[in-house]
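Rather than argue in generalities, we reproduce a single protein record, letters for residues, whole numbers for local backbone shapes, just as it appears below:
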Amino acid sequence: MTAEDVKKEIRDVYDFPIKGIIFRDLTTAFKNPECMRFFEDELYRLYKDKGITKVIGIESRGFIMAPVLGQKIHAGFVPIRKKGKLPADTIEISYQKEYGTDTIQIHKDALSEDDVVLIHDDLLATGGTMAAAVQLIKKVNVKKIYVNFLVELDDLKGRDAFENDIEIESLIHY
């Protein structure tokens, strides 16, 4: 299976969540075991030799592949969640989204300065959520941050939301 084959499995939902938006729905690819194998194999190929100690998934679709990759490269999994979803002490950051303000959190004890982390989410559009996640992780002063997406919408220029010290990889581009 190739990236082009996977693209054929991703459903386009027009006018969602608002009129004029084409939502790239990865759930149709996730239900295909060959697509899941492609994601797993490609993520492993990219990150197997980076010394990653924690794979961080962003709620909610980042929770699908992040723990799979973590297990495969022998790294832990850490969730970043929306405010109020984590049970212990947290650190948080608020950020502006296309449709308002949001806050994300991570447990205070989830990471240390010795960690090399990969922050994963399913799709890069404008980059707001992931850029906030990067800023949140920088508060912990980890050794290195990598960022990964399964899909990137190139015309929205989401990469512009990140500083040059962040290595960004996307498996599929639109």
About this structure: The helical segments are 3-9, 27-30, 33-47, 62-72, 128-138. The chain is about 30% helix and 35% strand.
